[in-house]
Amino acid sequence: MGPRAYLPREREAMGAYQSLILRITPGLTGWWQVMGRHSTTFDERLRLDEYYLSNWSLWLDVFIIIKTIWILINGQGA
Known about the structure:
By secondary structure, this protein is mostly helical.
């Protein structure tokens, strides 16, 4: 789990979030993916990634895995 990788061209737009988010190895799925993904703005994505990193727990990762599977089964992962 962890924030998806950001593109090099997005780094400047990350502002104050950059130092926190870029310290973490990107993951295959994460809080942003299961809490909105394409329906969120770039700023919302940053806030969701910051929330995940600031509130990480094993149970949050378990929730993300379960929700990722649910989204894939229901065909919402496109």
